[in-house]
Amino acid sequence: MTGREYPDRPWVGIGCIVFRDEQVLLVRRGKPPRMGSWSIPGGAQHVGETAEAAARRELFEEAGIEVGPLALAIVVDAISHDDEGRALYHYTIIDFAAAWISGEARAGDDVSEVAWARHEELVLYDLTPAAHNAIAAARDALARG
Question: What is the mean pLDDT of residues 22-45?
Fold first, then answer.
């Protein structure tokens, strides 16, 4: 068992969906789970760390960039059940939206590659439906200001 299987509480994951002009930042995961897949930058929240601080830390560790104010984009419960109906995994994922302000995006920490993608290019990255939903929610959150 990985320690995250059959949890006694949800694990909190924090993501940050970053826009630079008309492009969104994507990262290719360098470690499991979903190693090799393109995704939104993010990771686990640490004890004693606010959600916003976790988003900024993960973004800097994974991509080396900084962003302006954060807006809540979406909260997703990702729950997988085993054959007996027990919760095998349970992640509560909080995704923020933000605009890039500084730093040259580069792969760091547990990321093997980074990319800035325009909306029409997202299909090339084989993102999950949840990632597409989160990106759309982030665009809306930033548009609302």
Answer: 93
